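Support case: D-malate complex. Customer-provided input:
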Amino acid sequence: MKRNPFFLQLSPNYLFRELKNRVDNFALLNPERSLISLGVGDTTEPLGTTIAESLSQAACDMRDQELYMGYGPDQGLLPLREKIASVLYQDIISPDEVFVSDGAKCDIARLQVLFGQDAVVYIQDPSYPAYADSSRLARSIVGKEGHRLSYLSTLPEKDTLPHLEAAPEDAIIFLCSPNNPTGVAFQRSELSSLVDIAQRKNQLIVYDVAYRAFIQGDLPRSIYEIEGAKKCAIEIGSFSKMAGFSGIRLGWTVVPKDLTYSNGITIHSDFLRLVTTTFNGASILSQRGGIQALSPEGLEEIERQILLYLENAGSLKEALLKKNFIVSGGEHSPYVWIKTEHTSSWDAFDYFLQETGIIVTPGIGFGPSGEGHVRISGFGRPYLIESAIRRIESL
Ligand code: MLT
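Agent response - structure generated as follows:
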């Protein structure tokens, strides 16, 4: 069998796999060093009590002849879709427009099939590496007409607004707010201007709100808060960071019924066709946990965890600022983005590892604009964050 040539367009390892290999190697050579993992953004706080109980109740229900369920409904359990629409979107979208998934990353990859091989993709830079990697796997990134994958630089110290005018008509645009890794969230007026351009140029925005729960104050938590967005945007969300479901697996994608291809055919019907062909739905157990997470008690449990991670990120940011690092994020996001003096972000990663034993993520992993930066994560047990702060202070 011939190898899919699109694999040649990828680096040998996914960012966090590469990071783990380097950390394992360092640990092997330096067994006496104690390392603090603030690289990959993975949740550390245990599930809220009522959420955990709902998961175990869901498992127990499966023993009962009356309550047992095999496959769930194609788009996900209706009570969960209703809760997503009402609690997270205040009914600006309808449950019919919600597709429950097993997480944002899986839907990012599935969407690529929807866009096809000729799609021209523009990616906010820096941002979550799965957008670029799944785009590279889906098509040849260089076509007769030129590059099919381009970056829209949005560094906090320069300009946080991606220049959508640079992308052609019909382009697919990946945006992430609050941004992973920079932690910057779009202002309402900024998002409005992006939606205007996308509508005018017939572009499709894929808007990732995996970190929406971290937004404080009146910034938009969904692109659909902006007039016209239902005609130009798909939104992807996740329970991973919001409710600690990174191992339980649950997310959603919103495909508005008003959203059409340039030929007028609705994207919703193709997305339904796609997910029913390639996916048998998120686990019923995780969906039951998701329903509880969006109940009043569940939301309180979630909120406590979000505040703890934000406090972690805020304290890390403060310690870095005291050491004169140029930083952003940590206010609407669990991540702090650090501009370093190193030109290579892998060198900066090595510097933090050698000097402090803190594992950070090199900015280049998030796109070319990430070079010269690293990301530090506020997902960590508070005592480890305190220890990381002491190590930063001693730099
Ligand atoms: C991150 O650390 O940016 C992600 O949460 C990890 C991932 O989903 O790949």
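Residues 190 and 376 are 26 Å apart (CA to CA).

Case will auto-close in a few days if no follow-up is received.
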